[in-house]
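Notes from the pairing session

We agreed to fold both candidates in a single pass and log them together. This is the raw record for the first candidate, unedited. Please don't reformat it; downstream parsing expects exactly this layout.

Candidate A
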Amino acid sequence: MSAVLPPHAAHDHDHAHDHHDHHAPHGWRRWLFATNHKDIGTMYLLFSFAMLMIGGVLALCIRAELFQPGLQFFNPELFNSFTTMHGLIMVFGAIMPAFVGFANWMIPLQIGASDMAFARMNNLSFWLLIPAATMLVASFFMPGGAPAAGWTLYAPLTLQMGPSMDAGIFAMHIMGASSIMGSINIIVTILNMRAPGMTLMKMPLFAWTWLITAYLLIAVMPVLAGAITMTLTDRHFGTSFFSPAGGGDPVMYQHIFWFFGHPEVYIMILPAFGIVSAIIPAFARKRLFGYTSMVYATASIAILSFIVWAHHMYVTGMPVTGQLFFMYATMLIAVPTGVKIFNWIATMWRGSMTFETPMLFAIGFLFVFTMGGFTGLILAMAPIDIQLQDTYYVVAHFHYVLVAGSLYALFAGVYYWGPKWTGVMYSEVRGKIHFWGSLIFFNVTFFPMHFLGLAGMPRRYADYPLQFTDFNALATIGAFGFGLMQVYFFLFVCVPMMRGKGEPAPQKPWEAAEGLEWEIPSPAPFHTFETPPKLDATATKVIG
């Protein structure tokens, strides 16, 4: 029996569900030896939420220290460890694995594949994250404490750190290997396992954004591996890549790191664009405006991301010609991003919109991400950036892009596809409390940081002059509110859905949603698309 149900067979859901789920393994073996893309996706999402909580606690330690001037709770060295580990854990432990969880869950469902291409490698790429994350967090308990060189791990600081630095380097190698394996899996799945009739230009944008992201990951993760391996050999094997005493150059580290680091920023935002591109048309009840231009804009962002790395380095003594090149190249990236924002607004224009929680988060994403984009354009200009370098303005900018960009899109995706995953609808009231609480507290936290940065408050300092007190106090109150909203989200939205508490979700909870994932029952059965579906001309409906 095919797992693809034509609309007239909706009353057979339960039968289809039973038919498939008795193949599912049970108990701890199901999770330890998981090869099913849905189970692995679920594990990625739970892991990333656990890391979000750990990274969030570190952020709240930072904000607690900065609530008032003077040293309250932590010495400056530990404070620097908090800022370093907060960044590493959020980037490599929370945001990236969360998007891989979405890719695992949704890409096979969206392209009509039975599973990911390499199911056992998929299992390995998840389980590698557990020892890596453990090693990263355990570095706090090593002699000398956790690394305190900033998440960018700049030399020469990294060459002076204690043994925890080596643990951090090893952990990042393992996470990088996991990312590369996940990317190979996603690329092969998308290129080789699409349902008959689904050409590349008929794929949902989420699959497109992940295809491009996977190529980016394969291109840049080895660059990061090279930078941290050179750091390791400088520390232990007598090389002098980054040590000026032996003829090395610490600025070279920055070039190598940011050649990874800038595409990395887009790795964390492109899948978010894909999620938002699925949600806005569903709730505007219109087809996405300018699908082809969205695909080309995504590819353009990816290509341009390789030629802008040194805009992080305007103050390293770069020649003016270099500053001009990186300044113009960075401003150029705003063009394809602007195309995307225009297309999302054009999709909403004159649509019959409703504002369920996924749409609220998508619009919140659009509003706040665009603000983050504008501050990015400001920082792209070398003369201004030289004033704002390493101030709280930069902190405000990248949190507007990463929290309100990546994280809001992830929340939007959980609310949008969650009913398909769990088979129950979330509570709309609780979803809206989560949205409004998150939006308000986020802005209370990070908006004042623009003013702190403009007034000259440097980042990564545990203490500050008296005139910055009020905005810092405000930011700290906002941060604790924002953290509590995420705990609320887990306890009162996610846990009830995972336990099946709530209204049973229909096969297609959002009437105007398009895509193959809405052709299977809710909750999605353990095995789907064992027989590849045959698609109509639009590649959104199953024939038969």
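Candidate B (folded immediately after A)
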Amino acid sequence: MKPLYLVILPVILLLGGSTAPIKRNFDLKQLSGNLQLTLKHGVWKLWQEKPVYQNITLDLVCNQGQCESEIWGYAPKFNQEVDHEGTLIKNNLQISSMTKSLDAWRLTIKMNIQFHPWNPESQEATYNIELVPDKNQLIGSYSGNFNQRFLQGRITGSIQPYWPISIKNHRLLSPQEHPRLIFRKHEVTALKAKVKTPIGQAVLAQLNKTLQQQVFYEGYVPNGGYHAVGYCFLALITDDKNAAEKGWKLVETSMKNPGNRLLEQSPIVAGVALAYDLCYQLWDENRLEKVTSWLAGQINRLIKGDSPKNGWNSNHASNWNARARGAAGIAALAIFNEPDKFFSESYDSYRQIKLAERNIKRYLRTAIGDRGFGIEGDHYTTEPFILTIFPFLQAYRNVMGKDLVKGSSAQWILPHYLMRIIEQDEQLQLASYGRHRMYAGSSLFSLGLGTVSDEFLPSIIWFFDRYLGQKGDQTFGINSPYEVPFIFSAYPKKINQKNPVDTFNKVLVDETKGFYNFRNQWQGKDDIVTNIYLKKHSLGGVWTFPDVGSFRIWGLGGRWANPGASELQSSEENVVIMPKSRPWVSSELLGFQSRSNGSGIVTLKTSPIWRKNSQPPVGIEGLRSFAVDYSGTSGSPGLFVLVDQFNGSVQSKEFREKIWIMHTAEKVTIKDQSFIIKAANGATMKGTFVMPNPVKISFEKTQQGGKIMATGGDEFFVIMTVQKGLPPAVKITGSGLTSQVKVGQQEIYYSQGRIFLLNF
């Protein structure tokens, strides 16, 4: 009878029929956590004089069915820029007297639906909701009124773990308590004592160095406010009134020089808010009122967004959203519960905190994968984190007493980059993806250390100490004055350190975005790091590169497979291109295997490319299988195998020409079916083409080094080894994709659409 009930339940509820309880074995404890109820066609508005209905999702926080009165709603198709506030009016749980489990759940919710972020007026919606459990979810229906219309429809509900997570023994803010964002007022005494320690002196030396940097009030990252943070921190822990005055002048000038767009305004607001918090006890009330009122206005601006004509990108996964809403959150936390007289008009800073929080949560869900890979690439991912997101996450924890990091993708940002970083030329570098081919570097660790969970901290500290801290270069990752109070308060941590591979394993997989990272060890400059990006899905409206199946190989002192130029062209990736065709959009995983030594095999299939309006359909799809072997069985520390195969109209005019491309930063020589890449330290990579045979290999110099190109067929089968000394011999038996290859004691073959390693 259960399947029948699932079909007729919405009809019964919507028609006002029987409300007799349906017995279900659903433990009431399951109604604990973050509940999301999606009401089909729960809001509407006129569009071109016709009513258009959209779904709305209501967010509740509940404990065994008893829910907080505060409700928030979001209807992105109704208006992507607006979150709607509401209240739980009635909460009625119908419990079975026999099983003591939930039979039905009735809620009455009132929501204030705002039509546009720039118009504060709203209309009230009332929803009478009836739900029943269905496995680990909820189903049901609603009826209600909004915008002078009666509404009714189906509901689907999900239950997720609590996020953010409440912090035990959190101290509530006292009136006008400052500092509060980076650290709390009760911690200041200990920080002042820390100044006298060798670590304290070393960190302050770095602060003084960065304070000598040039101050910019223009550009992509105006840093006047960030310099003010450095002076205000110095004033706070050394009681230097002169430093507080310098901080004020920087803040005052920053407020008078707004950024051209919200992208540039965000770091200005973040810097001013952090400086305000640190200098609060050192500035007079007139200054505090001036900054408080200015911040309130900027928060409204950053939360509401802007016109696309001014470059604004409101998409959840956009770095614009992350920058702006992170800065708004920092500022709202800074002025939370300030005296009314500090504001030029009535102001609800709690509401602005919630709006910033909800936007950042959506960013973390959409832009960042489950293991920290950002869909917009390394630069556009890490820059917002160091400018606003890490400061917001730390400030939110201190002020609100809740942790937004644990249980979210944010907790994997530092582990993700830790497992990709290579020590080269006495710097911490990585082979990047996305636009601008760079990442935030050591600033990620100086700013993010305070947000690291206890389970990850031993390995993060291992890395930090070894390269940036007491045992390293003693820069403490500091590249700008505002980073100093973050690392000063978070470091050192007295903790038993662990090698990162013992915590995060040698293979790091971001399943959400399709990123696979293989590391052979974490020891130093001879480590090898390899990764491949499947680009499992493509989000519209954000920066995304033609990275489908592109890979990177760095190690033993060489940048063997490197990113190309920062241009939106597939020829700047390590892929097979078809010059007369548009590039692949996304791919799906066909198979994955890994081993504890860091080895792995990934096989993907691209989304098809179709000729427009072709009858019968003309199209092509690609299959790429990529193997990484760190076992040493091949006679080299790194063996890499790559097979590219194509299905469909492979000989059609737009798909016929195929060019295998790999970019490298090193010197290249070519002979017959092979290429040799040589690094400055003498290490080499040898690549041998099993297919095509014969193959035409060429090399073209670029600003990044050069790129190897191979043509000659519709399929590619390549063996590559990295080593110091002579490369192992490659023995090929047979021909084509059915060839069997032996390298040292490792045997390689391709079958059923994937690479196989005999000793794997």
